[in-house]
Amino acid sequence: MSKRIQALEEALGTPLLERLPRRIELTEAGRVLHARCRHILREVENTTLAIRNLSQHVQGILKLATSHHIGIHYLPGVIRDLHSAFPDIRFDLHFMTSEQSAQAVLAGEVELALCTLPAEVRPPLEASLIWDEKLVFVAGREHPLHEVEGLSLSHLVGQPNILPSRETYTFQRVAECFEAQGLTLSPGTPANFIETIRALVEVNLGWSVLPAFMAKENIQQLPLKEGAISRPLGVLMDARRTRSSVARAFLEALQVNR
Questions:
Q1: How far apart are CA 251 and CA 230, in angstroms?
Q2: Do 133 and 233 contact (CB within 8 A), yes or no?
Q3: In angstroms, rounded to a whole number, what is the distance separating the alpha carbons of residues 150 and 215?
Q4: What global pTM score does this model have?
Q5: Confidence band (pLDDT; 50, 70, 90) for 1?
C-alpha cells in the first residue's frame, strides 16, 4: 500500500500524506484528492444503479439505518408487505440513534435512514415525512404526580425525569416545550432506548415522554394543562445518490403504510 501511495505522489508531483512520528495526516493536496475520489466513487455507484434500474425486476439488498423503536413498532409491517410483493429483496439493518443515522447516510454507509427527522434538514440530505407520532408526558401508575391538582409543566421541573440524551432530536423537542412556558428542562437519567425508558418509568423512577400508544397499564399519561408535543418520523436520503430499485420500492411501501 505504501508503495502505491508513493507512486501516486510521484505521479501528482506532491506529497499526499504528512508522516509524523506517531500518526499520519492528509496534506492539503491529500484532502483535495480524498474529496474528489469520494465524489468519483459516488458517481460510479450512481451510474451502476441507473443501469440496474433499467430492469423492472426489483431485487437486491437495502442498507437501512433505523432506531430500535421504529424497528419494533413501525418497520415489521413495511418489510412484510415488501417481501410479499418482491421476494428477492433483502435488508441489511443498522440500528442506531437518529443523529447517527443522518451521518451514516451522508457517509454512504447506508442508502436510507428511517428515523426521527431533525428540525432542519440541510442539503445534501433530503427528508420525507411518513408518520407524525404523538408524544405524551407519562409516569408510573403510583407516581405522586398523578395526585397533583392543576398539574403543569412547572411541577415537573423539580422531579426526576428519564429522557433521551440532550443531543437527541426528541430531547430538543421536549426542551422546547418547557422553554415555551419560560421553564428550563434539566436532564435527568439519560436513556436512548425507548423500551428502557418505559421500564424505568414503570417502576416510578421518574416521569418521561413516550408515544401515546405506550401510555397504558402501569404507565399513565399525566393530566397536564399544556405540553402537547409530537415528533416527525420519516426517511432521510442523500440527494447526490441515485436510489436503487429496492430503495424506491421501500419508499413506495412506506407511503402505503403511513
A1: 22
A2: yes
A3: 20
A4: 0.76
A5: low
